[in-house]
Amino acid sequence: MPTESVAALDIGGTKIAGALVDSTGRILVRAQRPTPARENGETVMGAVESVLAELSASPLWSSATAVGVGSAGPVDASAGTVSPVNVPGWRGFPLVQRVRAATGGLPVTLVGDGVAIAAAEHWQGAARGYDDALCMVVSTGVGGGLVLGGRLHPGPSGNAGHIGHISVELAGDPCPCGSRGCVERIASGPNIARRALDNGWRPGPDGDASAAAVAAAARAGHPVAIASFDRAARALAAGIAATAALADIRIAVIGGGVANAGEVLFAPLRRALRDYATLSYVRDLEIVPARMGTDAGLVGAAAAALLESRDGTEEPAAVVGG
To answer: What Pfam families does UniProt report for this protein, alphabetically (predicted)?
Structure first.
């Protein structure tokens, strides 16, 4: 039995995943529920409580010393609240207080989901060994987190690195966040598909109109599908280059469902980056796929909780000596 574990929650607009994770990042127990994203806040919290109840029924629950939560954002770590754009029933919702109550008073660490992914990739994934990194998820939305000076940098609110809402097209389409031309408004999966459909691409007989279907069409040479991914790649390149110029990062790690398109995304992204990352200290920026897969949010939420429980004095065990 592990000497220490933490409970982890990965909360998004589609699913609420939970796990018990030990101090080496190994997932011991899992639970998951669909996110009732269009329901009221209490219904959404009920799904979170159901996940926690399933975890706490495990005999391994007694080893849990804290809870890490990575949530779609924005989050407010100082207030313990969340206001996910894609969960309208949660606006200023006191998630930390409610999770603490549901777990018998365990300490709770809250970070944005992009920060959680950065924690996971730095702990065990593609950013391991890098002191300065941007880690991104490109999926239904676009999020990110930063590692600076060898340490996770969530910022005071828990949202640092949220690259999806950097504006890269000043007169671009309105974004649900209230701004215009955000990276997310151009490069997220639904917006890649929207752009392709608006310009004449049509799904096949199965009716699949997702970004994955657009990626398949791009691989087959469909010009509109290729153009939609090229535009997304340019938006990502502009946002990554801006972040690199500001924070002097050495590597950008990209995961999420859209990144599963592989070279359909990464080839035009690397080309576009040459147009944007022009300063001498950002020209050698590495762009690599994420390695942690669908468990990144859980492992990263656990890493954030472990770091908090150790008062920032050391990295989780898998990073030490790595």
So the answer is: ROK
- The string of pLDDT tens digits covering residues 138-181 is 988 899 999 999 999 999 888 899 999 999 999 999 998 899 99
Which residues of 35-90 form beta strands (DSSP E)?
64-71, 75-76, 81-82
Distance between CA atoms of 284 and 275, rounded to whole angstroms? 13
- C-alpha distances out from residue 159 to 89, 99, 111, 172, 313, Å: 20, 19, 7, 23, 22
Cis peptide, bond prior to residue 176, ω within 30 of zero = no
Q: Which amino acid is at 134?
A: L
> Cβ–Cβ contacts within 10 Å for residue 270, how many?
15
Tokens at 310, concatenated: 């150790």
Looking at the fold, whether 209 and 181 belong to one and the same domain comes out as: yes
Q: What is the pLDDT of residues 217-258, one digit of tens each?
A: 999 999 999 999 999 999 999 999 999 999 999 999 999 889
CB 168 within 8 A of CB 235: yes
- CATH code of the domain in which 280 resides: 3.30.420.40
Is residue 121 in a domain?
Answer: no
Please, how many CA atoms are within 13 Å of residue 53, restricted to the half-sphere of its CB?
A: 7
Give how many domains the chain has, as a whole number: 2
- DSSP result, 170-202: TT-PBPTTSSBSBHHHHHSHHHHHHHHHHTT--
Q: Are residues 97 and 190 in the same domain?
A: no
The answer on 284 and 172 residing in a single domain is: yes
Domain assignment present for 274: yes
Asked whether residue 322 is domain-assigned, the answer is no
In a domain, 227, yes or no: yes
Range of the domain at 255: 126-291
Residues 136 and 37 in one domain: no
Say which amino acid occupies 70: G
Strand pairing partners for 9?
Answer: 18, 69
Q: Global pTM? A: 0.88
User: Do residues 8 and 305 touch, judged by C-beta distance below 8 A?
Assistant: yes
